Amino acid sequence: MKIRMIGLTLAFCFLGTAACLAADSQMGTWKLNESKSKITPGTLKNTQVVYSSMLGQVKIKTDGIDGKGKPSQTGWSGKFDGKDYPVTGDPNADARSYTKVNERTLSITNKKNGKVTGTGRIVISADGKSRTVTLTGSTPKGKKFKNVVVYDKQ
């Protein structure tokens, strides 16, 4: 009887873990696929994005190149609940919010000093191997942009 209970407990734990991982299709490391992307010159280009989750909080770290060609890093921690959370390292935003639209889609809003500077969507492909970020907005100098950036799962 004990062996049966231990087996059932392990099976439920395994299924629960699998369900949680499947629900968080955004999680993991994503590398820029530059040949499939259209990035407005002079805007931030993230070459790698890492999503991780711990205790209900999501952490997003990016490495890339800023609008002047220098290395950059951004960081964000919060929840996908539509509320603003601080972002670091982005000259175009000091706050960012994410809203979960469905299992494969997030909407994003960037703000600087309370003013919206960019909005967009992040969509994971049906096979989970790529993600497309579509972001429109204005740079700190007021230049309008629309970036469509494709990343491959690592």
Largest sheet: 10 strands, antiparallel, barrel
* Strand content range: over 45%
| Oligomer status | single chain
Mean pLDDT metric: 89
Helix tally equals: 1
**Helical content, roughly?**
10-25%
- Please tally the β strands and state the result: 10
Beginning-to-end CA distance, first to last residue: 42 Å
Rg over alpha carbons? 18 Å
Widest sheet: strand ordering: 1-2-3-4-5-6-7-8-9-10
Structure description:
With 154 residues, this protein is mainly β. The chain has one helix at residues 2-23, and strands spanning 28-32, 45-54, 57-65, 71-78, 85-88, 95-102, 105-112, 115-124, 130-138, 144-153. Strands 1-2-3-4-5-6-7-8-9-10 form a ten-stranded antiparallel β-barrel. Strand 2 (45-54) and strand 3 (57-65) form a beta hairpin. Mean pLDDT is 89; it is low at 10-23.
